[in-house]
Amino acid sequence: MATQVVNNAQKLAPVDKTFGDLPPAAIEALEQAALTTSYPTGAVLFAEAQSPRGVFIVRRGRVKLSVCGSDGRTLILRIADIGCPLGVAAVVSGRPYEATAETQEPCEISFLRQADLVRLMRQHGELALWVTQHISRDYASTCREIRDLILSDSASEKLARLLVGWLDENTSAKNPGQMKLALTHEEIGQMIGSSRETVSRLFAGFKKQHLIQQTGSTLVIPNRVALESLITA
Amino acid sequence: MATQVVNNAQKLAPVDKTFGDLPPAAIEALEQAALTTSYPTGAVLFAEAQSPRGVFIVRRGRVKLSVCGSDGRTLILRIADIGCPLGVAAVVSGRPYEATAETQEPCEISFLRQADLVRLMRQHGELALWVTQHISRDYASTCREIRDLILSDSASEKLARLLVGWLDENTSAKNPGQMKLALTHEEIGQMIGSSRETVSRLFAGFKKQHLIQQTGSTLVIPNRVALESLITA
DNA sequence: AGCGATGTGTGATCTCCATCACCAAACCAT
DNA sequence: ATGGTTTGGTGATGGAGATCACACATCGCT
Q1: Cα B196 vs. chain centroid, distance in angstroms?
Q2: What pLDDT shows up at residue B170?
């Protein structure tokens, strides 16, 4: 059974892509302890404030991480993709999951029980380091998000920053400045801490200023610099 | 020289208190690689966006961690105290420091170079785990901060949350509901993302509603539940 | 087609808080 | 003391955006 999982996983995501430069022994140990499953869109891997059962490693697809405020409003922290271990902070510290993880599309995800992760981390310093690097990245991105969201209150600045960030991630060489818009205005609002209506108005304004063009779900940013000039306005 | 540092450190903070349940071998290795120094109030250990040189471990005193927005405004992420390793996320991930660390009072702080930390983490899985636990806590607290600050916009709610949080940390058994107020209104504003004036007005309002009493730098919260009722209002 | 559900566009209003301005109090050095 | 510096109190004003309210578009479904 263990070998079957390994084979399965290797088909899904080449080792080098998912686990970086982990030594083979650590990867092998990981694969043996992990269980890989398929999830449909909208599946909740874990919910905020649940006590941790284990970590989830994204092998295919994208997962939305969000926190939920007392008044019911939602803030999307980030979208995780291949190779991201989710829920590590909770598992390692023993505290409840600090966010909710929900699949945004059909996903393949490996699950690793809390005890197994901790055991493997103790045994393989390299693995612990890998895990720590991921948490560090998450921490850094959360810090950046805090800074961006709280210290720059014009909503247009936040939206511009988000769009530029997306541009960097989806830099398809053939169509520069072009990308698919996979989120609704509501979700975008949840990423920048604004209301749906504000996002709608901002998009309208950006179009009027020719900062963006939109046809269907395709978004084009003809002049990246102009958009950037809104940041630190 | 190495032994001198060890002796020094043991006088400053008992091993069990600073390093939790790390195995002696790991602590020994840490102490040998670390260099402990005294800092006056207001010293900047590292600044946001600097490339990482190493980690700082607080042995005595308190250190303020903050990020700075494009418009010059500041947000205080948290106050670190004894045993907290600072700058780990940056060192481990190789990215710039994500915040600025500044002493709030005279401190004793150990410094560990980047290469040494990474080497020690590789060698001692337990140490890597300890580091990871700390980052996890930081990450969790940052997530909570994001949620609190963005998803609850009434400033009074944020202040109430802050005060209740402080009450939990400073729960001196002899004087319940009482604590020292070590921050200025300006700094409190920087913790909840509001202006100095707003904090001043909020305090006045809280006093009028008998939610708090203040004499000098001593703050008394006679009725914790009443204050909590402001949260999720 | 026709019908719900879901997403989007846009006006009107209203509230909270940042900001400016200025003074009062406290603190600290000489 | 006494003058300078930091901190705290409070009014007045303005503006960004949340919220409400509704109409329109779009999509999937039987």
Answers
A1: 21
A2: 79
Contact B147 A73 (CB under 8 A): no
Question: Is strand C within 7 Å of residue B37 (CB)?
Answer: no
Provide the pLDDT for residue A173.
67
Q: Which of A65, A131, A151, A190 to mutate to test the interface with B (most CBs of B within 10 A)?
A: A151
User: What 3-state DSSP class applies to A226?
Assistant: helix
CB distance B208 to B148 below 8 Å: no
Q: Is there a shared CATH topology between the A2-150 domain and the A155-228 domain?
A: no
Domain ranges within chain B, ordered by starting residue: 2-150, 155-228
Q: Is A23 exposed, middle or buried (0-12, 13-18, 19+ CB in 10 A)?
A: middle
Nearest by CB to B142, which of A128, A146, A151? A146
Distance between CA atoms of A141 and B139, rounded to whole angstroms? 10
Residue A113 three-state SS: strand
Choose the closest CB to B140 out of A98, A147, A150.
Answer: A98
> What is the average pLDDT value for chain A, to the nearest integer?
86
**pLDDT at residue A15, as a whole number:** 45
Quickly list H helices, B34-169: 88-93, 114-123, 125-150, 155-169
Question: Domain B155-228 - what CATH class?
Answer: mainly alpha
Region A216-222: what's the mean pLDDT?
91
- β-strand partners of A85: A57
Tell me the CATH architecture of domain B2-150: Sandwich (2.60)
How far is Cα of residue A159 from the mean position of the Cα atoms in its chain? 18
Closest alpha carbon within chain A to B132: A132
Residue A10 has pLDDT above 60, yes or no: no
Positions of chain B with pLDDT lower than 50, given as ranges:
1-16
SS3 B42: coil
Rounded Cα gap, residues A86 and A63, in angstroms = 9
Nearest C-alpha in B relative to A137: B93
